[in-house]
Amino acid sequence: MHSMTKKSTKAPAKKSAAAKAPQREAAEVEQPAPVAEAGAGESTGGRGGKVAKTQLVEQVAQQSGLTKKQAGQAVDAAMEAIVDAIKQGQSVGLPGLGTLSVKATAARTGVRPGTSERIQIPAGRKVAFKVANTLKGALGGTGDAAAAQ
């Protein structure tokens, strides 16, 4: 009997403390989310959202016949190789998807929001992504992509 009493007294205390914060966060997040999903759904043919790493690993496992553990290791290795190449300043071509490359940014003057203070933004590097023409065509792109197919 004591174990049941302990469980019932401990569980509500943990749930109430943990449940209060996520409910507030969920309420804040859920209000703007339908607007974002509706916009994303329209542009992607009704399949808005994000593919998480676990979903990507599951798809790789299904399509390759690997176990989920092996597929996870393969996805991790591929991501690590891509990140390492980008860090070294190399471009990474992903056939059918596009090309990731590093571009230099020039130093420039910016304006701090709220204070209108002018600030100097130093030169740096950023990652650029150029979508493959085949993917543009598959998404219903216009112009050169549609003409290429």
Automatic annotation (TrEMBL):
Classification via Gene3D superfamilies: IHF-like DNA-binding proteins (4.10.520.10)
Domain of life: Bacteria
Signal peptide stretch: none
This protein's UniProt keywords: DNA condensation, DNA-binding, Plasmid
Compositional bias annotation for Basic residues: 1-13
Pfam families for the chain: Bac_DNA_binding (PF00216)
Annotated Low complexity bias: 29-41
Region (Disordered): 1-52
Family: Belongs to the bacterial histone-like protein family.
Protein name: DNA-binding protein
